Amino acid sequence: MSKGSIAVLTSGGDAPGMNAVVRAVVRSGINKGFDVLGIKRGYRGLLNKDFIEMDLRSVTNIISSGGTILYTARSLEFKTPEGIKKAAQNCLEMGVKGVVVVGGDGSFMGARALSDAGVPCIGIPGTIDNDIACSEYTVGFDTAMNTAMEMVDKIRDTSQSHDRCSVVEVMGRRCGDIALQTGISCGATAILVPEVPYDIERDVIARIIETKEYGKQHFIIVVAEGVGGSVDLAKYIEKRTGIESRATILGHVQRGGSPTLRDRLVASQMGYEAVKLLAEGKSKRVVAMKNGKIVDYDITEALDMKRVFDTELFNIAKTISM
Asked: What residues act catalytically?
């Protein structure tokens, strides 16, 4: 006999591995005796009753697919008290006893509000930026980094052929983790992130000149989206050094593609844990990773946490980028 229904939705920006979360939630939910519903297009779908029944076969082979089969969208209506009340009523009418929400901080705020309205919710961090303070890892981050690394490697081939400087802008509006780890993996001469103040002359121009004196003829500068100004930076580098310089903004290519092994694994672990928490009668929790282990936090505690940038890794990058 069914224990009732739980639902899963994906919200905010899409991230590789979201489908792996959906798969884990569906199969773990069914294993624990729940009927499982998918909610299309995030909180907007919740307001529009855009629910679909899901079974074991409805998630076959999606673990390797990028994007999200449930789609994602933003909803201004859901942010209003009336919207929250309507969403909770829709869950009641559909017999939904709990919702797994995959997304970022904004999605978690929605999950908290929905929980306060009487619908138990569990959040899972799904965002390529790795910018969720309570979790050292977010679903989609590894795939995005690998995509960025592959793109920078290709750009470096043409930079080397022409003795150029390539300024490559990667995603990361508030968080420089993609820039930092991609920059290290690609041997960037300089890495600019929003967490660390920088001086163009000291941190870019001087480093290019110094490494050129050591015999380097081509240069990669990796810039986080939150720093921006990549086109102007390339022009300034060329003006100051005489080195032909080009800017490339990678953009949304970093969101797509088949998720890596790590994203598939972590997504599966987190999806399973979210269902386990709902089965235990838990609510207003966020599944996270700490010291490589899957843990969970109260959602308000999670939202109040402050993210700590890895300054040690940043200093390592500066040391070995000569």
From this structure: 129
